[in-house]
Each structure stands twice: as structure tokens, then as C-alpha cells.
Amino acid sequence: MQEKESGLEEPxxxxxxxxxxxxxxxxxxxxxxxxxxxxxxxxxxxKIFAMLVRGRLVLKLPVQRVDALVDGGAGVRFDANKxxxxxxxxxxxxxxxxxxxxxxxxxxxxxxxxx
Length: 115
Hints:
Elements: H1 11-22, E1 28-29, E2 41-44, E3 47-53, E4 56-60, H2 63-71, E5 75-77, E6 89-92, H3 100-114
Antiparallel strand pairs: 1-2, 2-3, 3-4, 4-6, 5-6
Helix pairs in contact: 1-3
């Protein structure tokens, strides 16, 4: 695994670890690669719940949860280069000390419950 000088893993390695830990969950589909939006996405029931975009973890969560995380300084709302922030998508700050796995599991359950 690659690590930064600060001791934190690089985002790509952290995401690979996350994928490894979640692909055994029933219904979770790993990233398929390729081109375009969602190529690095974890999916459940055909819907994206977590992805790595430009070195940052992006997660689909309830609006209130995204609001709380943004207000707490953990990240910003995700913008898919369209100029509009998406209310249910958190773009987690790579320097955040929030553990990715519990947050990704939260996103997984949210997407599973809303599908």
C-alpha cells in the first residue's frame, strides 16, 4: 500500500481497501473500470453508493447527513462538473480523519433502502 509522508494512505489505496472490504457484502458490485462517470463506483442494486473521483471519496447519503458532514467541515457537496452541487452526495475531504468504511456502509444502506 502506498502511504503519504504523513502516514495516511493515498486515496487510491484507501479506496482499494474499501472495495475489498465491501465486495463480500450481498449485492455489492465492484468498480468495472472503463470510461465515464461511475467507472470507479461501488454499486448496489445497480445504483452507485460510493466512488473515487479525482482522489476523493464521494458517497450518496441522506441530505441531512450530508448537511451535517459539510457543516462539520468533513467535506463539500459533490459537483459532477455541471456547476450544481448535488444535495445527497458528499465529496469527503481527503484530509478528514473520518473512517471511510463505516461511512461507506452508511451510504450502502441508504442506497439499498431507497432503491
